[in-house]
Amino acid sequence: MITCPRRLLFGGLFPLLFLYWSPLCGQDSIPPSGHFEVELEPAAFIFRGYTLNMGFQSGPFRVSVKSFAVNQPRLFVGNQHVAVQSSGIGFEVNYLFRPGRTPFVGALSDFYSDQLFARSTHGNGLQKSVSAGVRIGYRHLFGEMATDYRGCYLSGSLAAFRKLDAGDLVIAGEHYAPRSLYLIPAVNVGYRF
């Protein structure tokens, strides 16, 4: 499932972020003030998809860009007559309360492309939307303070968001109305460089 946002992320945005935070930008004599991080969400693989999150933490703030594609579980869709495949890119800003093992709060926004399939009529439709929301969570870094917590970590969170411009959609005579509020739990496995 290759989408335009995924090509944008890997073809344009990630190389620019890499050059900005790497020694190639001409500031190799100045030590970096933050940490680059990469996360995967293992549950996305269960739903025949992926979630890749690349972030940079400086002080208590973490900014990240993610790319995702997943077959949404019926529980999250809110309509038993429709199957949904979502893909897109997202942006997150988190505030971490302490270094190392800590709770965090954040804001997020995603650009979605939802492919909807009616289960009974086999019709389909496409819906593009933007979401905005908040999230809370806890991150446990397995690294030590002496090594600046470099290494693997686990991050669990609960996101609450709305799809801002998603309207009703009719697929082969069946009406599909998106939920007003989405609550999505996530457990990510990451590595801090």
- Secondary-structure content class: mainly beta
The quaternary state of the protein chains shown equals single chain
Helix content: 10-25%
User: Which CATH class?
Assistant: Mainly Beta
Distance between the termini: 29 Å
SSE pattern, N- to C-terminal:
HEHEEHEEEEEEE
Q: List the strand order in the largest sheet.
A: 1-2-3-4-5-6-7-10
Q: Taking all residues together, what is the mean pLDDT?
A: 84
Count every helix, treating DSSP H or I runs of 4 or more residues as helices.
Answer: 3
The total tally of domains equals: 1
The appropriate CATH architecture is Beta Barrel
Rg for CA atoms = 18 Å
Organism: Neolewinella xylanilytica
Protein name: DUF3575 domain-containing protein
Detailed description of the structure:
The protein is mainly β and 193 residues long. The chain has one domain (57-192): Porin (Beta Barrel). The protein contains three helices and ten strands. The strands form two sheets. The protein has an eight-stranded antiparallel beta barrel. It has a two-stranded antiparallel sheet with strand order 8-9. Strand 5 (102-118) and strand 6 (124-141) form a beta hairpin. The longest helix has 17 residues, at 4-20. The protein is elongated. The two termini are 29 Å apart. Residues 22-32 have low confidence and may be disordered.
Produce a short descriptive summary.
The protein has one domain: Porin. Strand 2 (50-58) and strand 3 (61-71) form a beta hairpin.
